[in-house]
Design goal:
This protein is an alpha+beta fold. Helices cover 16% and strands 22% of the residues. 22% of the residues are buried.
């Protein structure tokens, strides 16, 4: 058990956070979710199954049934899962296969 706070997503993945904000604003310049991205915490990579690469921004199991699909040139590039109230981003799935670096990879020592 660790007492260290979780880092902010924007500190671990600054380009991704900026992209999410930009894409949300392109869909709706007043989207309240865009205002929350800078303060999202990064809880690590989801461990629900070996192939899952979702980036958790809330405790595992916090998601509801809401998903925001973010597109670039007509293609889904990022899915944001939301909590049951649809007001908080609980995890991020990057769909375009880009390499987000070592922080996005499951570590064998963590469980």
């Amino acid at each position: 058990m660790t007492t260290e706070p979780h880092p902010r997503l924007a500190d671990v993945f600054p380009d991704l956070a900026t992209e999410i904000i930009t894409l949300l604003r392109e869909q709706d310049e007043n989207d309240p979710l865009a205002d929350t991205v800078e303060d999202l915490l990064f809880y690590g990579v989801c461990t629900c199954k070996p192939t899952c690469t979702n980036l958790l921004t809330a405790l595992r199991g916090s998601s509801g049934c809401w998903v925001v699909q973010l597109e670039h040139d007509g293609e889904d590039v990022i899915w944001l899962s939301l909590d049951p109230t649809a007001t908080a981003i609980t995890d991020i799935e990057v769909l375009d296969g880009r390499d987000l670096g070592p922080a996005s990879r499951r570590q064998s020592a963590s469980a």
